[in-house]
TrEMBL record:
Keywords: ATP-binding, Calmodulin-binding, Kinase, Nucleotide-binding, Phosphoprotein, Serine/threonine-protein kinase, Transferase. The lineage of its organism: Eukaryota, Metazoa, Chordata, Craniata, Vertebrata. CDD domains: STKc_CaMKII. It catalyses: L-seryl-[protein] + ATP = O-phospho-L-seryl-[protein] + ADP + H(+); L-threonyl-[protein] + ATP = O-phospho-L-threonyl-[protein] + ADP + H(+). It comes from Xiphophorus couchianus. It holds the Pfam family Pkinase. Residues 13-271 form the Protein kinase domain. This is calcium/calmodulin-dependent protein kinase. Its EC number is 2.7.11.17. It comes from the Eukaryota.
Length: 342
């Protein structure tokens, strides 16, 4: 069970190599001395945190303690000491889901169905526990190990919030631009449906290797999202089954009240009957596009080390999507923008 203790971290754990780094935290592999069990230790320098940041840290730890699911990175311990706070999570060693897909020899629509099923299982558990993730994106979809068919694990609850039932309220901007829902961009009350919208964006990418909404101009990107202006262009979508497109349409429904829920999505034929509904054809073009998509995501991270977000300057919870040229999007973007201007 995840608990907050005052025991000195170094008395119980041995730290090893760095796995990742943030503005106020670092993630390192660690081993519990009494058991030899490995964990990922998120080490937060609390001396650098504002009062508001302290509240966010407490919220993240509280939320992570609630969530116990095979498709969610689990919090095992929480240790608070003078100047530092340690969160001990599952050590997941399989890397990002999207990176694993491009390394596979075979990838089909049925594989995409299996991926989104696991993501939806994680989201359903969150929603049943009164948690909205608010930052579903490829970077937060990890694999438990490098073994074949390793479980997908949802990570990073730094922007997650707690809600009561189907509560809708204005919780502020939070997330990553390309995955934000229309209701968030319109500054309307929102809740659990924002996670389903992000799942729809992720599923679209899983099937063709590029996102449904894209523009180098942030304002135009948000116009596209608010209008729900996406399509299924030829030739890449010609080989995708109608059932897959139907599920995407239900996830990317502009009205959150009419958007499919996680529970309903898991009962969709394309998910629960994929052996007979989803195509088994190898999607080489998707893999090639996804390689480019991954490369540009990595470039975004590198740029993010030197730049600061400039669109909602008053908001610190919108995670930047740095402007970089996407491949072969020009004609699609022009088409969408011309439709929006009519």
């Amino acid at each position: 069970m995840a608990t907050t203790t005052c025991t000195r971290f170094t008395d119980e754990y041995q730290l090893y190599e760095e796995l990742g780094k943030g503005a106020f935290s670092v993630v390192r592999r660690c081993v519990k001395l009494s058991t030899g069990q490995e964990y990922a230790a998120k080490i937060i320098n609390t001396k650098k945190l504002s009062a508001r940041d302290h509240q966010k840290l407490e919220r993240e730890a509280r939320i992570c303690r609630l969530l116990k699911h095979p498709n969610i990175v689990r919090l095992h311990d929480s240790i608070s000491e003078e100047g530092f706070h340690y969160l001990l999570f599952d050590l997941v060693t399989g890397g990002e889901l999207f990176e694993d897909i491009v390394a596979r020899e075979y990838y089909s629509e049925a594989d995409a169905s299996h991926c989104i099923q696991q993501i939806l299982e994680a989201v359903l558990h969150c929603h049943q526990m009164g948690v909205v993730h608010r930052d579903l994106k490829p970077e937060n979809l990890l694999l438990a190990s490098k073994c074949k068919n390793a479980a997908v694990k949802l990570a990073d609850f730094g922007l997650a919030i707690e809600v009561q039932g189907d509560q809708q309220a204005w919780f502020g901007f939070a997330g990553t631009p390309g995955y934000l829902s229309p209701e968030v961009l319109r500054k309307e009350a929102y809740g659990k449906p924002v996670d389903i919208w992000a799942c729809g964006v992720i599923l679209y990418i899983l099937l063709v290797g590029y996102p449904p909404f894209w523009d180098e101009d942030q304002h135009k990107l948000y116009q596209q999202i608010k209008a729900g202006a996406y399509d299924f262009p030829s030739p890449e979508w010609d080989t995708v089954t109608p059932e897959a497109k139907n599920l995407i349409n239900q996830m990317l429904t502009i009205n959150p009240a009419k958007r499919i829920t996680a529970q309903e999505a898991l009962k969709h034929p394309w998910v629960c009957q994929r052996s007979t509904v989803a195509s088994m054809m190898h999607r080489q073009e998707t893999v090639e596009c996804l390689k480019k998509f991954n490369a540009r995501r990595k470039l975004k991270v590198c740029l993010g080390q030197f730049l600061q977000p400039c669109w909602f300057p008053e908001i610190s919870q919108v995670r930047p999507l740095w402007a970089f040229s996407f491949f072969n999007y020009t004609s699609k973007v022009k088409k969408v923008n011309s439709q929006l201007s009519v």
